[in-house]
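Letters spell out the chain; backbone shape is given numerically. Both lines appear below:
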Amino acid sequence: MAETTFTHYSFREWIAINHDIKPIISENKCFECDGLGRHECECGDEHECRNCDGTGKYKKTITLEEIYSKQLEKDEIILQKWLSRQTRYD
């Protein structure tokens, strides 16, 4: 049977190893005004959208902590699958 090692890295260790990873910033169409940058109020007047400040877009940032956490989730799934295969063959 092949031997595999698994190393858990703390967030700081992970950052040191993956120093080239940057937060992900995505620009999306505003869901409040449907990307128009304005909306009509109950009285019929048109106003700048407060959610996107009239740009019609908003930015979402995925932090390094979120990227690290998602990677841990993926690694755990892979490890669990590998472990379940190993116990079947023991």
About this structure: Strands lie at 24-29, 38-40, 46-48, 57-62.
